[in-house]
Amino acid sequence: MWTRHARVGCGLWLSSTDKDSFEGWHDGYTRLEDPVKHRRLIELDKEARHLVVEDRVEMAAEHEIELFFHCAEDCAVEETADGYALSRDGIRVEMKLPAGGTSEVLRGSLAPMAGWVSRGFDRREPAATIVWRAKLAGSTLLRTAMWIRG
Question: What does 8-76 look like in DSSP terms, one character per residue?
Fold first, then answer.
Protein backbone atom coordinates (compact mmCIF):
# COMPACT_ATOMS: atom_id res chain seq x y z
CA MET A 1 0.00 0.00 0.00
CA TRP A 2 2.72 2.51 0.95
CA THR A 3 6.02 2.52 -0.86
CA ARG A 4 7.90 4.14 2.01
CA HIS A 5 7.35 3.33 5.65
CA ALA A 6 7.93 5.99 8.28
CA ARG A 7 10.70 5.49 10.80
CA VAL A 8 9.61 5.87 14.42
CA GLY A 9 11.45 6.18 17.68
CA CYS A 10 11.22 6.69 21.40
CA GLY A 11 13.22 9.65 22.72
CA LEU A 12 12.15 9.39 26.36
CA TRP A 13 10.57 6.81 28.63
CA LEU A 14 10.44 7.50 32.37
CA SER A 15 8.15 6.01 34.98
CA SER A 16 7.95 6.62 38.73
CA THR A 17 5.29 6.41 41.41
CA ASP A 18 4.47 10.10 40.78
CA LYS A 19 4.80 10.59 37.03
CA ASP A 20 5.09 8.82 33.69
CA SER A 21 6.68 10.46 30.64
CA PHE A 22 6.99 9.26 27.05
CA GLU A 23 8.25 11.05 23.97
CA GLY A 24 7.98 9.55 20.49
CA TRP A 25 8.71 10.77 16.99
CA HIS A 26 8.28 9.74 13.38
CA ASP A 27 9.58 10.95 10.04
CA GLY A 28 6.46 10.22 7.97
CA TYR A 29 6.01 13.85 6.91
CA THR A 30 9.63 14.44 5.90
CA ARG A 31 8.73 13.16 2.41
CA LEU A 32 6.72 16.35 1.77
CA GLU A 33 8.11 19.10 -0.46
CA ASP A 34 8.42 21.18 2.71
CA PRO A 35 9.38 18.50 5.26
CA VAL A 36 7.62 18.45 8.63
CA LYS A 37 9.14 16.94 11.77
CA HIS A 38 6.77 15.72 14.50
CA ARG A 39 7.45 14.79 18.13
CA ARG A 40 4.88 14.00 20.82
CA LEU A 41 5.51 14.15 24.56
CA ILE A 42 2.92 12.59 26.90
CA GLU A 43 3.19 13.20 30.64
CA LEU A 44 0.89 11.83 33.33
CA ASP A 45 0.95 13.36 36.82
CA LYS A 46 -0.55 10.42 38.72
CA GLU A 47 -1.44 12.23 41.94
CA ALA A 48 -3.04 15.24 40.23
CA ARG A 49 -4.68 12.95 37.62
CA HIS A 50 -3.50 15.37 34.95
CA LEU A 51 -2.34 14.35 31.47
CA VAL A 52 -0.46 16.66 29.10
CA VAL A 53 0.13 15.93 25.42
CA GLU A 54 2.66 18.22 23.71
CA ASP A 55 3.03 18.01 19.95
CA ARG A 56 6.03 19.80 18.46
CA VAL A 57 5.92 20.38 14.72
CA GLU A 58 8.77 21.93 12.76
CA MET A 59 8.47 23.16 9.17
CA ALA A 60 9.41 26.16 7.06
CA ALA A 61 6.27 26.84 5.01
CA GLU A 62 2.67 26.95 6.17
CA HIS A 63 0.87 23.61 6.60
CA GLU A 64 -2.57 22.62 7.83
CA ILE A 65 -1.90 20.69 11.02
CA GLU A 66 -4.47 18.29 12.47
CA LEU A 67 -4.55 16.56 15.84
CA PHE A 68 -6.90 13.59 16.28
CA PHE A 69 -8.22 12.27 19.58
CA HIS A 70 -10.10 8.99 19.14
CA CYS A 71 -12.73 7.86 21.63
CA ALA A 72 -14.39 4.52 22.32
CA GLU A 73 -17.73 3.97 20.65
CA ASP A 74 -19.68 4.34 23.93
CA CYS A 75 -17.84 7.48 25.10
CA ALA A 76 -20.02 10.58 25.42
CA VAL A 77 -18.40 13.79 24.14
CA GLU A 78 -19.73 17.26 24.90
CA GLU A 79 -18.31 20.64 23.95
CA THR A 80 -17.29 22.94 26.82
CA ALA A 81 -16.07 26.54 27.01
CA ASP A 82 -12.41 25.40 26.96
CA GLY A 83 -12.63 22.25 24.85
CA TYR A 84 -14.46 18.99 25.46
CA ALA A 85 -15.64 16.71 28.26
CA LEU A 86 -15.49 12.96 27.67
CA SER A 87 -17.55 10.60 29.85
CA ARG A 88 -17.68 6.83 30.16
CA ASP A 89 -18.38 4.40 33.01
CA GLY A 90 -18.56 7.16 35.65
CA ILE A 91 -15.24 8.73 34.65
CA ARG A 92 -15.07 12.21 33.15
CA VAL A 93 -12.07 13.67 31.33
CA GLU A 94 -11.97 17.42 30.77
CA MET A 95 -9.88 18.32 27.73
CA LYS A 96 -8.42 21.71 26.85
CA LEU A 97 -7.15 21.89 23.27
CA PRO A 98 -4.34 24.13 21.99
CA ALA A 99 -5.18 27.78 21.38
CA GLY A 100 -5.42 29.21 17.89
CA GLY A 101 -7.22 26.42 16.08
CA THR A 102 -10.68 25.11 15.34
CA SER A 103 -12.14 21.80 16.38
CA GLU A 104 -15.01 19.49 15.60
CA VAL A 105 -16.29 16.06 16.58
CA LEU A 106 -16.71 13.52 13.81
CA ARG A 107 -18.78 10.37 14.41
CA GLY A 108 -19.33 7.87 11.63
CA SER A 109 -18.28 10.35 8.95
CA LEU A 110 -17.74 9.16 5.38
CA ALA A 111 -16.40 12.48 4.04
CA PRO A 112 -13.89 12.79 5.51
CA MET A 113 -13.61 9.15 6.59
CA ALA A 114 -13.31 9.53 10.37
CA GLY A 115 -15.07 8.69 13.60
CA TRP A 116 -15.05 4.90 13.43
CA VAL A 117 -13.83 2.00 15.58
CA SER A 118 -13.19 -1.49 14.20
CA ARG A 119 -13.12 -4.34 16.73
CA GLY A 120 -12.78 -7.03 14.05
CA PHE A 121 -12.42 -7.75 10.36
CA ASP A 122 -15.16 -6.18 8.22
CA ARG A 123 -16.82 -4.55 11.27
CA ARG A 124 -17.04 -0.90 12.20
CA GLU A 125 -18.98 1.18 14.70
CA PRO A 126 -19.37 4.96 14.82
CA ALA A 127 -17.22 6.54 17.54
CA ALA A 128 -16.36 10.13 18.37
CA THR A 129 -13.11 11.53 17.01
CA ILE A 130 -12.15 15.04 18.12
CA VAL A 131 -10.26 16.84 15.35
CA TRP A 132 -8.26 20.05 16.01
CA ARG A 133 -6.95 22.04 13.02
CA ALA A 134 -4.78 25.10 12.41
CA LYS A 135 -2.57 26.54 9.67
CA LEU A 136 0.94 26.87 11.08
CA ALA A 137 4.50 27.55 9.98
CA GLY A 138 7.87 27.35 11.70
CA SER A 139 8.48 25.54 14.97
CA THR A 140 5.32 25.27 17.07
CA LEU A 141 4.45 23.59 20.37
CA LEU A 142 0.82 22.46 20.66
CA ARG A 143 -0.29 21.65 24.21
CA THR A 144 -3.40 19.60 25.03
CA ALA A 145 -4.24 19.24 28.73
CA MET A 146 -6.61 16.69 30.29
CA TRP A 147 -7.93 16.34 33.82
CA ILE A 148 -9.37 13.02 34.98
CA ARG A 149 -12.43 13.40 37.24
CA GLY A 150 -14.43 10.68 38.94
Answer: EEEEEEEE-SSEEEEEEEE-TTTTSSS--EEEEEEEEETTTTEEEEEEEEEEEEEEEEEEEEE--TT-E
